[in-house]
Amino acid sequence: MRNPLFSTRLTRLLGISHPILCGGLMHLADARYVAAVVNAGGMGFITALSFPDQMKFREELRLCRELTSGKPFGVCLSVSRRKEANDRLPRFVDTLLDAGVRIIETSGHSPDIIAPRLKAAGCTVIHKAPSVRFALSAEKLGVDAVTLVGIDGGGHPGMDIASSFAMAPLASERLKIPFAIAGGIGTGRQILAALAAGADGVLLGSRMLAAAEIWAHPEYKQQLLRLDERDTRLVLASFQNNHRVLANDTAKMVADMEAERIAEIERYLPLMSGALTRNAYESGDLREGLIDLGPAVAYVREQQTVEQIFDDLLDDAKAASDRVQGLTATSGNPRARRLA
Ligand SMILES: Cc1cc2nc3c(=O)[nH]c(=O)nc-3n(C[C@H](O)[C@H](O)[C@H](O)COP(=O)(O)O)c2cc1C
Fold this sequence. Notes:
This protein is an alpha/beta fold. It has two domains: 10-216 and 299-319, Aldolase class I (TIM Barrel); 232-283, no CATH class. 41% of the residues lie in helices and 14% in strands.
């Protein structure tokens, strides 16, 4: 693990070396991946809803504890706006508390139904919010930090349609708690820019998907290497549920149905099935299924381990920091004078 380059409110809150969080990834963020993130000096989150039952979830937490040699790691809990979909959450909370997990990423709808219990149990809660107004509501609820996910974010970036870099300075003026930004981030230059804009760190999703520790089929990762920033699209805005996904056959069918103003959700459900998405990860055939992805996939250029990705990010952040320092127009800086 690299020596720390930056110390921020977020690195201190979570006791991590680098201000880099790797967000929950449905089906993909398991013990092996999350442990690799933690061992590289960031914070990762095992995605609870990926697990069909508590036994499998408990086993994953145990494995992560072993792979991190007892270092703290996180769990991601998504709250649905459909009440019945949240019925499973209390059992996940029981299991993770029993297993000693105390760092939680909440996402989706307001965390009000679980945050008080998590806080009472001594957890550090980081809520992922799609805009500053929702981040402020989460702050009022008592969460410890927030991640602001801009519209570039793979997965569900919300309906407020603001970019992470537009939100960062506003969040730094309005929020009291530490915050990370996410969405379209996958280089060290952006980490430095995020810190300069007032954020305490970044959160990555798409940049990490070809990591060696992600279990998906090698052909899935090979295809990621060939994609660029134009290969994702937003669908399901007509259901107030923006979903940023790979621009594949299924995404086109969904977009076409929305353009035809088809409003019955039942017509879409077969295309939205999680089983299709999981099958794509298992088979490497990415034509079918809504496959969460953002334009930061353009920064995925080779197959690397999580640690190698972190090394590249930190080298790039350091180079960016040196470059900016070199541009500072002080009288004692001949390089800055030359560039002026
Ligand atoms: C494949 C994939 C699966 C995701 N699954 C979840 C999830 O289950 N829960 C969640 O809160 N966020 C999920 N996200 C969102 C990420 O945690 C993160 O917020 C997002 O990827 C950041 O934007 P980026 O993709 O531009 O880096 C997912 C993102 C991707 C790419």
